[in-house]
Amino acid sequence: MSRTGGGKPGKREYPDCPRVGVGAIVIDGDRVLLVRRGIPPSQGLWAIPGGGVEIGETLAAAAEREILEETGIRIEADRPVYSFDFIERDASGEVRFHYVIVDLAARYLEGEVRAADDAADARWLTWEELRGLPVSKNTLKVLREIGFGS
Q1: Contact by Cβ (8 Å): 75, 66
Q2: What is the CATH number of the domain that holds 137?
Q3: Confidence of residue 4 (pLDDT cuts 50, 70, 90)
Q4: What sign has the CA pseudo-torsion 133, 36, 141, 89?
Q5: For all residues of the chain together, what is the average pLDDT?
Q6: Quick one: which of 10, 101, 11, 111 has its CA closest to 62?
Q7: H or E segment to which residue 95 belongs
Q8: Is residue 6 included in any domain, yes or no?
């Protein structure tokens, strides 16, 4: 479980401060590892796998843990390659979700991909396979920026 200051569980919805999230961009040949989000925010969209950073955890350790939890594979996280703000408001304008997300480059080590934790699905996908799927705009943006599918 992700945590905020004082060791108390952090609020995902309607937080009192931004939460730090981490993702891992794992490319194996002409395929990238993506998950279909099973819970809000972005439920149903394909995205870079990842999740919350826990107190005392580095970005790399968080990425490695989250990818193992969501997809069942082991990775070696490297350096940050992309960061963005994710802010979603409800119908009344109140902030429902607020994340600062840092995506790290990562190297596949071992394991068979399987959806777990809060991922509804997990797969290795080529750029061509992404075309017919609902993919988050930030995922498409970072994949283009790093040259995936070029």
Answers
A1: no
A2: 3.90.79.10
A3: very low
A4: positive
A5: 91
A6: 101
A7: strand 95-110
A8: no
